[in-house]
What does this fold into?
Amino acid sequence: MKNFYSEVDDVTLTYSDIKSTADGMEYIRIYFEKPIEGDFAFLESVIPGLDIKETEGFSDGEVKELLDYANRNAFIIWQLAKEGSASIA
It folds into this structure.
C-alpha cells in the first residue's frame, strides 16, 4: 500500500507499509514522482539505506536532492508507517 507523505514543487513522496526481508530486517519503500510532459519522472528507494531501486526522468542533482530530503524525513516516515501498521493490527 502506498501512503502519502508530501508534495513539494510538483514532486510527490509516498511510502509503503513496513516490510521485512527473509532475514527479518525491516524496511520501507519510498517513491518520488513528478509529472513531466506526457509521462512521470520517478525514483524508488528504501529506508534505511536509501539504496536506489529504480529511477527515470530525474537528473543526478535532483536524485541527490530527493535522497537528501528522504534522509532528513526518514524518522518521520518511519514513525508514520509504524502508526499506520499499529492501527491495522
In short: The two ends are 15 Å apart (CA to CA). Residues 2-88 form one domain. The mean pLDDT is 92.
